[in-house]
What we know:
The structure is a homodimer. Helices cover 42% and strands 14% of the residues of chain A. By secondary structure, chain A is α/β, with parallel strands linked by helices. The interface between A and B is large, with 52 and 53 residues.
Amino acid sequence: MDYYIPPLARLIEQFEKLPGIGHKTARRLAFYVLRSPEGEAEKFADAILSAKQLIKYCRVCQNITDTEICSICESDRRDRSIICVMENPKDVVSLEKTGEYHGLYHVLHGAISPMDGVGPEDIKIPELLSRLKDNTVSEVIMATNPNIEGEATAMYISRLIKPLGIRVTRIAHGVPVGGDLEYADEVTLSRAIEGRREM
Amino acid sequence: MDYYIPPLARLIEQFEKLPGIGHKTARRLAFYVLRSPEGEAEKFADAILSAKQLIKYCRVCQNITDTEICSICESDRRDRSIICVMENPKDVVSLEKTGEYHGLYHVLHGAISPMDGVGPEDIKIPELLSRLKDNTVSEVIMATNPNIEGEATAMYISRLIKPLGIRVTRIAHGVPVGGDLEYADEVTLSRAIEGRREM
């Protein structure tokens, strides 16, 4: 039975596709959009389109950016001898918020996970290796998630980098094992960076 | 400090405006949109715009519709002698789902609430009264929410309608007092319609 008119049904359906949004919440959000003041729906739609259109990967570190090279890679106040390797752009934001890290980043956009069909060639590992060729980098911190896939990815990358004579470290397990970096608080992340150890 | 690039910050901000969506959820949804497959973001944006553009109020019952007159008002299988007055379009959907009501509707788009500055002239009461002029309607069911504002609105409207010689009923308090019609289950709503009483 069709209880909703088509434009409303389509909007509810689109909200339902979002992660963690069920049917009742989708319905509530759709009705909110309908009732929203003039111009608000247009701003919302435009934010979606322009985020999707303007945001690309930094040519150097693969983090998301709206410029060719991101502001961190462009900055002359960052320590260029150290690269922190992370799985996702939001992990970079979490670490930046601690204010304790001043090196560069490299975003893998995922972790090696044979169960999900993600191999080393599916994430930004080749891009990381090519950044290490000019000998400016002396340390790579593996800050992938402290779960099975993240540990395996850290291990895999460390085996590729160590032969190059570059120090490879792993963030300390101050971050709760089995969790996601996204939910770690700033202090825990700071401790994790401080307590990093040779791997 | 700006941890997010502007297009992403704008998208997060738009998601945060939605009811019940906090900063962390907004961030998660924004990143989901960024990662979504080609064309999905466009479909989402289009659903928002077209819902807002195509949906208007039915000229008769004030329910939302994408045609001049809604399908319920147009239908020749509905009992035109009875009008169920509800606060919101989603309440109509809830009652339609019970399959037990075959009359017409009238959507007020709110309830009288002096605390929020909503008076009788701010909701669709004049539109309801003008529907009662041609003597086809013999009963008006007040199905506003079973809370203070809903009760007050039902009382206010019943005082206007009774002098016209039209029967005015109130849905039974099978629906939990103090709650919202949106969350009532179909059976409870059915009982509420069955047990309606003179007011």
